[in-house]
Design a protein that fits this description.
By secondary structure, this protein is an all-alpha fold. The protein has one domain (about 40-215, about 235-315). The chain has 13 helices and two strands. The protein is globular.
Length: about 325
């Protein structure tokens, strides 16, 4: 009987891990599509702030009804977690996006993205300093290899001019991304993933609209068609895709993944967003990745595998 129980527990853990990895990859794929879709809008006359605000507002509207259904009248959950939801919406949703686009205004996009994607390292350090979860050798090695892979994928070997103001904004974006993984992994608040995502998006959307109203963000938009792979599409199509696919679905699946895998592993798997972004840019924008970028992709995969092996070693040791 004991053996059967252990087997059932082991099977359940493997099933949970498999589901978590599946949602993590889907989330990374969805988030990775956003850059390509947004670029079509930017070329058509949208400002970055307008594109990201439209993305978040559409996602909030899409998840509002599902969020209310999942809440099932348990308003006490939102009241009990008001502070958590507000921080999630302001820091994770609105703050991270605002900081990233501000960084892009002062430095190269690739460098800003690389700095933001040091978030997994920040997560490992946070878990170590705050909760005493010291990373093992495999986890640490996986982090280093994944970081090196990102350098190759982003093709930064030619060097870049680092602006101190831009670096500061990019570091704030990194904090927002790390906060996303840590907060999304918390299950003690009893908020269903879709409720947390919907509430955070509503708070973030309102914050961005207010920032635009007071002049902190330029929310200039355009009704001109967007072009992808030589084909023009109406402006509302990429806006809907940005909101529904790359935001609403991406956030919900990312929260589910973080709760199933833990913030450390989920944050490293999310590095695949960069690879998916390259693939989508190749297909829709004819931006063919170089061979060195594919080498970087292999390094990222190796790093994720090492981190996962490190997590298993930690669990078995406990």
């Amino acid at each position: 009987m004991a053996t059967m129980t252990d087997d059932n527990v082991g099977s359940g853990l493997r099933s949970s891990t498999g589901v978590g990895l599946g949602f993590a990859v889907l989330s990374a794929m969805s988030f990775g599509m956003s850059g390509t879709l947004a670029k079509g809008l930017l070329v058509a006359g949208w400002t970055p702030a307008a594109a990201v605000t439209a993305r978040i507002v559409v996602a909030a509207l899409v998840l509002l009804i599902p969020g209310l259904i999942a809440l099932r009248g348990r308003w006490h959950l939102l009241r009990a977690n008001t502070g958590f939801v507000v921080v999630y919406g302001l820091v994770v949703v609105a703050g991270c996006q605002f900081a990233y686009f501000s960084a892009v205004d002062h430095m190269q996009v690739g460098v800003a993205l690389l700095i933001e994607y040091t978030a997994p390292v920040a997560v490992v350090l946070w878990l170590w300093l705050r909760h005493g979860q010291r990373p093992g050798t495999k986890t640490a090695a996986g982090g280093v290899i994944a970081a090196l892979g990102l350098v190759l994928v982003l093709d930064l070997i030619s060097g870049a001019d680092l602006n101190p103001v831009g670096v500061g904004w990019a570091l704030l974006a990194m904090v927002g991304a790390a906060t996303y993984f840590v907060m999304s992994a918390q299950v003690g608040n009893c908020l269903p993933p879709v409720v947390l995502a919907a509430a955070g998006l509503v708070v973030g959307g309102v914050a961005l609209l207010l920032a635009g109203a007071v002049g902190l963000l330029d929310l200039t938009a355009s009704t001109a068609p967007a072009s992808y792979a030589g084909t023009e599409v109406p402006w509302w199509l990429p806006v809907l895709a940005l909101g529904v696919v790359t935001c609403a679905f991406a956030y919900v699946s990312g929260i589910v993944a973080s709760r199933a895998l833990g913030s450390r592993v989920a944050s490293f798997v999310a590095l695949f967003e960069v690879l998916f972004a390259l693939i989508f840019a190749w297909v829709a924008l004819d931006e063919l990745p170089r061979a060195i970028q594919f080498v970087g992709g292999v390094a990222i995969l190796a790093g994720v595998i090492l981190v996962k092996l490190g997590e298993r070693s930690t669990v078995h040791a406990g």
